[in-house]
Design goal:
The complex is a heterotrimer of chains A (about 260), B (about 90) and C (about 290).
Chain A (H helix, E strand, L loop, with lengths): L1 E7 L3 E8 L2 E9 L4 H16 L8 E5 L11 E2 L2 H12 L5 E5 L3 E7 L5 E8 L6 H11 L3 H8 L13 H13 L4 H23 L5 E4 L6 H11 L4 E3 L6 H12 L3
Parallel strand pairs in A: 1-4, 4-5, 6-9, 9-10
Antiparallel strand pairs in A: 1-2, 2-3, 6-7, 7-8
Helix pairs in contact in A: 2-8, 3-5, 3-6, 4-6, 6-7
Chain B lengths: L1 E8 L2 E8 H4 L7 H4 L5 E5 L5 E5 L7 H4 L13 H5 L5 E3 L2
Antiparallel strand pairs in B: 1-2, 2-5, 3-4
Chain C lengths: L9 E4 L11 E7 L3 E8 L2 E9 L4 H13 L11 E5 L11 E2 L2 H13 L5 E5 L4 E6 L5 E7 L7 H11 L6 H5 L14 H13 L4 H23 L5 E4 L6 H11 L13 H19 L5
Parallel strand pairs in C: 2-5, 5-6, 7-10
Antiparallel strand pairs in C: 1-4, 2-3, 3-4, 7-8, 8-9
Chain lengths: ~260, ~90, ~290
């Protein structure tokens, strides 16, 4: 049975087409200001990639902050439920799921069936999500990819005082003026957000295996910092980490009513 | 005096309140050693009272520092509140 | 490039007062994260003051602010008998006799500026927001301070002023140039509110409408902070944002209480309170025979 999962995030809309346990296609589009239009665009792109007609999709599941914009979805899932299902689908021994997106960070405790046992969320504050690293990369005038890379070159732990993205930008500027290297600043930034995320995970309790998903999972600097802050070497970055929510929605859509 | 230490941001309000009138009567200030994250310290406030206060350098990370004592399930009595015999400490979350 | 967040720096002295005949001359220096004030009080009356942008060096900012307050008065620093430092950088006022928290100083300053009927003070500063309850003597009975988050602070307003290309001093007036009040911006966080504002502009909203939505959101957010300790009359607002009618008027509507007015500049509360604390401490020292 072919199902679709659509994750309407703050920044991007992700679509996954699933046939049983086989992923047929994935597509991603920037959210833009016309959500329904962007959803259509992403959906059509995924269908095109999979080479299937719209009618071939039996069930559609929607998740993400803007999930209500997917009028044609039969199943609507919360982000934490979608995350847990998607994570366990990809990595059956996943028990702690860390999802850091553009505007939200989540810590989720899941069981073997992919059901949410506990969760904690960092929301509505840019300092707890990808918007933080993005702003700081801009302040340092490097790309996000470079930002993660250069942070690995530092071996210093400089704590940041500012806990707010707006104030942290000024702090970064004054660190630059104090001749602190870009590498050390980059590491300080990644350590700062990693410590906020790991404190959130501590509330649900750390249980192996720990998996990482969401757009920020691509950031190798963040991965290193979070391993260090949690004191865990084995943190698995799920494949195509930003699609795991959409995948989970597709899994739930297929299971619904069965 | 009610001293509210902490912050409010998009994700919520996180304040620890210390009632300094109750705090001055306490002989041992168990909160100082009772907190696993050591967020409290003794100060002489602006009105010359010796009282407990939340350390200035941790006030803006309270949500994260208190996280270990506030799990999403199975939350017990907070160690700082248990140690505070005059009942001067309250948490807003 | 125009800097829309810049507001005027200023100094003032009492043209009629002769400080040489004063018995007690004290000064309060408030080094904030965004602005610094120096106030000189002579025999319990406001004599001179200056307000300027805080530089990267706190001791220099303290010195510069005091120097500017003293300019054209004929008074020198050695004529000042007691100095109290306050504010974010209070430990960095090297020539201060004592440092007192900005909370206590704001309460004392508000009591002077608006009278002893003041019970609730809201200070919206450059990078923080304070809610204070005090008694008739200006002694603090309840307080909270939020300096973690830019929303509800001067910096939060500067970010939007900068985005819209509107000088921060004009924000209030412009925000009323709307046919009807819009819904407030939904994001509390300044970073997300900025994106939201950009979207609204693309949707054809005028700058005034965006400002109205943002001022209303700020007013609501600040009211939530105030509600944590409650609003007891009389209510007084200090700090830079007190000059932003766009936020003040909307806040008064949200909490259902009007703020009382004062003839004094709203940014002086901290430094003024510090100078008054200094006077009280000086009198105590004189009485104890420590000082001639």
């Amino acid at each position: 049975m072919i199902t679709a999962g659509i994750d309407v995030g703050a920044k991007t809309i992700k679509v996954v087409l699933l046939d049983g346990d086989k992923i047929l296609a994935k597509a991603q589009v920037l959210a833009g200001f016309e959500t329904e239009q962007s959803v259509e665009e992403a959906y059509k792109e995924a269908l095109g990639k999979a080479g299937i007609e719209r009618s071939a999709v039996v069930k559609v599941g929607a998740t993400g902050a803007g999930r209500k914009a997917v009028a044609f979805a039969q199943t609507v899932v919360t982000e934490v439920s979608a995350d847990a299902r998607g994570a366990v689908f990809l990595h059956p021994s996943a028990r702690t799921v860390i999802d850091v997106g553009a505007e939200e960070g989540r810590g989720i405790k899941t069981n073997a069936a992919g059901k949410v046992v506990d969760f904690a969320v960092n929301e509505k504050c840019a300092a707890g999500a990808g918007a933080f690293t993005e702003s700081m990369a801009r302040a340092l005038e490097v790309t996000l990819a470079q930002f993660g890379e250069i942070s690995l070159k530092s071996d210093k732990t400089i704590p940041m005082n500012a806990q707010c993205t707006v104030f942290a930008e000024s702090e970064v500027v004054s660190l630059i003026h104090s001749n602190i290297s870009k590498e050390d600043i980059a590491r300080a930034v990644h350590d700062a957000i990693a410590s906020r995320i790991s404190a959130m995970v501590r509330r649900v309790g750390l249980e192996q295996d720990v998996v990482l998903m969401g757009g920020v999972a691509y950031n190798i600097g963040f991965l290193e910092s979070i391993k260090r802050t949690m004191g865990i070497e084995n943190v698995v970055v799920l494949e195509d980490p930003e699609y795991v929510g959409a995948l989970g929605a597709a899994v739930v859509a297929g299971a619904d009513g069965n | 005096m009610l001293a509210n230490y902490g912050y409010k941001d998009g994700s919520g309000e996180y304040f620890i309140t210390i009632d300094t009138d109750k705090c001055t009567s306490c002989p041992h200030h168990g909160c100082i050693d009772g907190c696993p994250e050591h967020i409290y310290e003794m100060i002489t406030d602006d009105y010359d009272d010796n009282v407990s206060a939340v350390r200035r350098d941790v006030r803006n990370t309270l949500k994260y520092l208190c996280a270990a004592c506030k799990p999403t399930t199975g939350r017990g009595v907070l160690p700082c509140m248990a140690a505070c015999t005059p009942g001067a400490i309250t948490h807003s979350w | 490039m125009a800097e829309f967040w810049r507001w005027k720096e200023y100094n003032w002295k009492d043209p009629d007062k002769d400080w040489k005949s004063a018995k007690l001359i004290t000064s309060g220096i408030d080094v904030g994260s965004v602005s610094s004030q120096a106030v000189i009080v002579a025999d319990g009356e406001l004599y001179a003051y200056a307000s300027m942008r805080t530089g990267s060096n706190s001791p220099d900012s303290a010195r510069n602010a005091l120097e500017w307050a003293l300019r054209d008065t004929g008074m020198k620093q050695e004529n000042i008998q007691y100095v109290v430092g306050t504010g974010y950088g209070r430990v960095n006022v090297p020539f201060a006799n004592k440092a007192i928290t900005e909370i206590a100083c704001h309460a004392r300053g508000a009591n002077f500026m608006a009278g002893n009927s003041v019970r609730t003070i809201l200070d919206m500063g450059g990078q923080d927001c304070k809610a204070i309850h005090c008694d008739e003597k200006g002694k603090v009975t309840n307080f909270l301070m939020n300096d973690k988050c830019a929303a509800g602070t001067g910096r939060g307003m500067e970010v939007i002023a900068d985005l819209l290309g509107v000088p921060v001093e004009q924000v209030g007036e412009l925000s009323f140039n709307v046919p009807e009040e819009p819904e407030p911006v939904s994001s509390t966080c300044v970073v997300f509110a900025k994106s939201e504002a950009m979207g609204l502009l693309k949707d054809g909203w005028t700058k005034s409408k965006v400002l109205a939505a943002y001022c209303l959101a700020m007013a609501k957010r600040v009211s939530e902070l105030l509600e944590r300790i409650g609003v007891e009359k009389e209510f007084f607002i200090t700090g830079g944002i007190a000059k932003n009618a766009g936020v003040v008027k909307r806040l008064e509507q949200v909490i259902g209480v009007s703020a009382i007015q004062s003839k004094y500049d709203s940014q002086l509360a901290g430094a003024l309170g510090a100078a008054l604390f200094g006077q009280a401490l000086l009198q105590k020292e004189k009485a104890a025979g420590k000082v001639a």
